[in-house]
Amino acid sequence: MSFLDLAKRRYATKKYDITKKITTEQIEELKEIIRLSPSSINSQPWKFTFVTNQTVKKELAAQSYMNEASINDVDLLIVFSVMENIEHFEERNISILPEAWRTGFYEPMIKSNGEVATKSWMEHQVYLSLGYFLSACISIGLDATPMEGINREAYKKILPKDGYTPLFAVAVGYADINDWTHPTVSPKSRFEQDEVIQSI
Ligand SMILES: Cc1cc2nc3c(=O)[nH]c(=O)nc-3n(C[C@H](O)[C@H](O)[C@H](O)COP(=O)(O)O)c2cc1C
Which band of pLDDT confidence, cut at 50, 70 and 90, is reported for residue 59? Predict the structure, then answer.
Protein backbone atom coordinates (compact mmCIF):
# COMPACT_ATOMS: atom_id res chain seq x y z
CA MET A 1 0.00 0.00 0.00
CA SER A 2 1.29 3.49 -0.82
CA PHE A 3 2.23 5.86 2.01
CA LEU A 4 -0.66 8.13 0.99
CA ASP A 5 -3.12 5.26 1.35
CA LEU A 6 -1.64 4.40 4.75
CA ALA A 7 -2.01 8.06 5.80
CA LYS A 8 -5.69 7.94 4.85
CA ARG A 9 -6.20 4.69 6.74
CA ARG A 10 -4.36 5.67 9.95
CA TYR A 11 -6.51 7.35 12.57
CA ALA A 12 -6.57 7.99 16.29
CA THR A 13 -8.55 4.90 17.23
CA LYS A 14 -11.24 5.37 19.87
CA LYS A 15 -12.62 1.84 20.09
CA TYR A 16 -10.63 -1.38 19.97
CA ASP A 17 -11.57 -4.96 19.16
CA ILE A 18 -10.68 -6.85 22.33
CA THR A 19 -10.84 -10.22 20.54
CA LYS A 20 -7.91 -9.40 18.23
CA LYS A 21 -4.53 -9.84 19.86
CA ILE A 22 -1.23 -8.24 19.00
CA THR A 23 1.53 -10.86 18.75
CA THR A 24 4.87 -11.04 20.58
CA GLU A 25 6.61 -10.78 17.18
CA GLN A 26 4.75 -7.55 16.40
CA ILE A 27 5.71 -6.11 19.79
CA GLU A 28 9.37 -6.99 19.19
CA GLU A 29 9.20 -5.41 15.73
CA LEU A 30 7.73 -2.21 17.20
CA LYS A 31 10.54 -2.09 19.77
CA GLU A 32 13.15 -2.20 17.03
CA ILE A 33 11.27 0.34 14.92
CA ILE A 34 11.04 2.85 17.76
CA ARG A 35 14.71 2.34 18.66
CA LEU A 36 15.54 3.48 15.12
CA SER A 37 13.58 6.71 15.46
CA PRO A 38 15.40 9.81 14.17
CA SER A 39 16.35 12.79 16.37
CA SER A 40 18.28 16.03 15.99
CA ILE A 41 22.04 15.27 15.98
CA ASN A 42 21.02 11.72 16.93
CA SER A 43 20.53 12.94 20.53
CA GLN A 44 17.98 10.23 21.49
CA PRO A 45 16.88 11.81 24.81
CA TRP A 46 14.14 9.24 25.34
CA LYS A 47 12.85 6.05 26.93
CA PHE A 48 9.99 4.00 25.50
CA THR A 49 8.25 1.86 28.11
CA PHE A 50 6.35 -1.07 26.62
CA VAL A 51 3.60 -1.97 29.07
CA THR A 52 1.95 -5.36 28.62
CA ASN A 53 1.59 -6.24 32.29
CA GLN A 54 -2.17 -6.09 32.85
CA THR A 55 -1.95 -4.83 36.43
CA VAL A 56 0.40 -1.96 35.60
CA LYS A 57 -1.58 -1.13 32.45
CA LYS A 58 -4.81 -0.96 34.46
CA GLU A 59 -3.16 1.38 36.98
CA LEU A 60 -2.00 3.64 34.16
CA ALA A 61 -5.42 3.49 32.49
CA ALA A 62 -7.01 4.76 35.69
CA GLN A 63 -4.77 7.84 35.38
CA SER A 64 -5.64 8.50 31.75
CA TYR A 65 -8.91 10.42 31.86
CA MET A 66 -10.98 9.87 28.67
CA ASN A 67 -8.43 7.34 27.43
CA GLU A 68 -9.07 4.80 30.19
CA ALA A 69 -11.30 2.42 28.19
CA SER A 70 -8.99 2.36 25.15
CA ILE A 71 -6.00 1.47 27.32
CA ASN A 72 -7.92 -1.29 29.04
CA ASP A 73 -9.06 -2.70 25.70
CA VAL A 74 -5.59 -3.05 24.15
CA ASP A 75 -2.77 -5.39 25.10
CA LEU A 76 0.02 -2.88 24.53
CA LEU A 77 0.54 0.62 25.90
CA ILE A 78 3.79 2.47 25.20
CA VAL A 79 4.81 5.38 27.39
CA PHE A 80 7.14 7.92 25.76
CA SER A 81 9.42 9.67 28.27
CA VAL A 82 12.20 12.26 28.17
CA MET A 83 15.49 12.30 30.08
CA GLU A 84 15.34 14.60 33.10
CA ASN A 85 18.93 15.39 33.95
CA ILE A 86 20.72 17.55 31.38
CA GLU A 87 24.17 16.82 32.84
CA HIS A 88 23.56 13.10 32.49
CA PHE A 89 22.16 13.64 28.98
CA GLU A 90 25.30 15.51 27.96
CA GLU A 91 27.59 12.84 29.42
CA ARG A 92 25.73 9.86 27.99
CA ASN A 93 24.25 11.14 24.72
CA ILE A 94 26.07 14.29 23.62
CA SER A 95 29.67 13.47 24.53
CA ILE A 96 29.71 10.52 22.10
CA LEU A 97 28.68 12.64 19.11
CA PRO A 98 31.05 13.96 16.45
CA GLU A 99 32.90 17.05 17.71
CA ALA A 100 31.36 19.22 14.98
CA TRP A 101 27.81 18.38 16.13
CA ARG A 102 28.64 19.29 19.72
CA THR A 103 30.59 22.49 19.20
CA GLY A 104 28.93 23.48 15.95
CA PHE A 105 25.32 22.82 16.89
CA TYR A 106 24.46 21.59 20.41
CA GLU A 107 26.56 24.03 22.41
CA PRO A 108 26.00 27.27 20.44
CA MET A 109 22.42 26.65 19.26
CA ILE A 110 20.75 24.61 22.02
CA LYS A 111 22.67 24.68 25.32
CA SER A 112 23.42 28.42 25.07
CA ASN A 113 19.67 29.13 25.28
CA GLY A 114 19.51 27.80 28.85
CA GLU A 115 18.04 24.83 30.67
CA VAL A 116 14.36 25.45 29.88
CA ALA A 117 15.01 25.75 26.14
CA THR A 118 17.27 22.69 26.16
CA LYS A 119 14.61 20.60 27.91
CA SER A 120 12.01 21.81 25.45
CA TRP A 121 14.30 20.80 22.56
CA MET A 122 14.75 17.37 24.15
CA GLU A 123 10.98 16.95 24.41
CA HIS A 124 10.62 17.90 20.74
CA GLN A 125 12.80 14.93 19.87
CA VAL A 126 10.47 12.56 21.74
CA TYR A 127 7.43 14.06 20.01
CA LEU A 128 9.12 13.59 16.67
CA SER A 129 9.34 9.86 17.35
CA LEU A 130 5.55 9.81 17.86
CA GLY A 131 4.72 10.76 14.27
CA TYR A 132 7.20 8.25 12.95
CA PHE A 133 5.83 5.55 15.25
CA LEU A 134 2.17 6.12 14.30
CA SER A 135 3.03 5.68 10.63
CA ALA A 136 5.01 2.55 11.47
CA CYS A 137 2.04 1.02 13.32
CA ILE A 138 -0.37 1.36 10.41
CA SER A 139 2.30 0.12 8.00
CA ILE A 140 2.27 -3.22 9.83
CA GLY A 141 -1.52 -3.32 10.08
CA LEU A 142 -1.90 -2.06 13.64
CA ASP A 143 -4.14 0.73 14.85
CA ALA A 144 -3.00 3.18 17.50
CA THR A 145 -4.06 6.10 19.67
CA PRO A 146 -1.62 8.85 20.63
CA MET A 147 -2.53 10.12 24.11
CA GLU A 148 -1.48 13.35 25.75
CA GLY A 149 -4.50 12.92 27.98
CA ILE A 150 -2.56 11.22 30.73
CA ASN A 151 -1.68 12.29 34.25
CA ARG A 152 2.08 12.62 33.83
CA GLU A 153 2.78 12.88 37.56
CA ALA A 154 0.73 9.76 38.33
CA TYR A 155 2.42 7.87 35.47
CA LYS A 156 5.79 8.83 36.86
CA LYS A 157 4.87 7.41 40.27
CA ILE A 158 3.64 4.13 38.76
CA LEU A 159 6.58 3.56 36.38
CA PRO A 160 10.14 2.65 37.49
CA LYS A 161 12.13 5.60 38.89
CA ASP A 162 14.78 5.81 36.20
CA GLY A 163 15.40 9.49 35.53
CA TYR A 164 12.84 9.86 32.76
CA THR A 165 9.61 11.91 32.76
CA PRO A 166 6.54 10.59 30.90
CA LEU A 167 5.23 12.93 28.20
CA PHE A 168 2.51 10.94 26.43
CA ALA A 169 1.43 7.37 25.67
CA VAL A 170 0.30 5.32 22.67
CA ALA A 171 -2.22 2.49 22.80
CA VAL A 172 -1.74 -0.14 20.08
CA GLY A 173 -4.17 -2.82 18.91
CA TYR A 174 -6.85 -3.51 16.34
CA ALA A 175 -9.71 -1.08 15.78
CA ASP A 176 -13.27 -2.25 16.35
CA ILE A 177 -15.11 -2.16 13.02
CA ASN A 178 -17.89 -0.28 14.81
CA ASP A 179 -15.61 2.58 15.86
CA TRP A 180 -17.57 5.69 14.80
CA THR A 181 -14.32 7.63 14.37
CA HIS A 182 -12.98 5.22 11.74
CA PRO A 183 -12.12 7.19 8.54
CA THR A 184 -14.58 5.11 6.52
CA VAL A 185 -17.38 6.43 8.77
CA SER A 186 -16.06 9.88 9.81
CA PRO A 187 -13.92 11.29 7.00
CA LYS A 188 -10.68 12.96 8.05
CA SER A 189 -11.03 16.60 8.94
CA ARG A 190 -8.10 18.69 7.71
CA PHE A 191 -7.54 22.17 6.33
CA GLU A 192 -7.32 22.30 2.56
CA GLN A 193 -3.88 22.18 0.90
CA ASP A 194 -3.98 25.85 -0.08
CA GLU A 195 -4.43 26.81 3.60
CA VAL A 196 -1.47 24.84 4.95
CA ILE A 197 0.92 24.47 2.03
CA GLN A 198 2.77 27.23 0.27
CA SER A 199 4.57 26.62 -2.99
CA ILE A 200 7.04 29.31 -3.94
C1 LIG B 1 0.28 14.66 20.53
C2 LIG B 1 -1.12 14.12 20.37
C3 LIG B 1 -1.88 13.87 21.50
C4 LIG B 1 -3.16 13.31 21.38
N5 LIG B 1 -3.86 12.97 22.52
C6 LIG B 1 -5.03 12.29 22.38
C7 LIG B 1 -5.68 11.75 23.52
O8 LIG B 1 -5.25 11.90 24.67
N9 LIG B 1 -6.81 11.01 23.33
C10 LIG B 1 -7.33 10.78 22.07
O11 LIG B 1 -8.34 10.10 21.95
N12 LIG B 1 -6.73 11.30 20.98
C13 LIG B 1 -5.59 12.02 21.11
N14 LIG B 1 -4.94 12.49 19.98
C15 LIG B 1 -5.54 12.24 18.65
C16 LIG B 1 -5.91 13.51 17.89
O17 LIG B 1 -7.08 14.07 18.43
C18 LIG B 1 -6.06 13.13 16.42
O19 LIG B 1 -4.80 12.72 15.93
C20 LIG B 1 -6.57 14.29 15.57
O21 LIG B 1 -7.87 14.66 15.95
C22 LIG B 1 -6.57 13.95 14.08
O23 LIG B 1 -7.32 12.78 13.87
P24 LIG B 1 -6.72 11.46 13.22
O25 LIG B 1 -5.42 11.16 13.92
O26 LIG B 1 -7.75 10.40 13.50
O27 LIG B 1 -6.52 11.71 11.77
C28 LIG B 1 -3.69 13.06 20.10
C29 LIG B 1 -2.90 13.33 18.96
C30 LIG B 1 -1.63 13.82 19.09
C31 LIG B 1 -0.79 14.01 17.86
Answer: very high
Q: Closest ligand 1 atom to the C-alpha of 14?
A: 11
CB 137 within 8 A of CB 175: no
Which of 9, 134, 148 is the pocket-test mutation for ligand 1 (most atoms within 8 Å of CB)?
Answer: 148
**Cα–Cα distances in Å, from 77 out to 41, 70, 161?**
28, 10, 18
- Going across the sheet that includes 164-173, the strands are 46-51, 76-83, 164-173, 143-147
pLDDT single digits (tens) 160-171: 999 999 999 999
Domains and CATH numbers, the chain: 3-196 (3.40.109.10)
Question: Which amino acid residue places its CA nearest to atom 20 of ligand 1?
Answer: 12
84-130 residue pLDDT tens: 999 999 999 999 999 999 999 999 999 999 999 999 999 999 999 99
User: Which residues have CB under 8 Å from 139's CB, separation 6+?
Assistant: 6
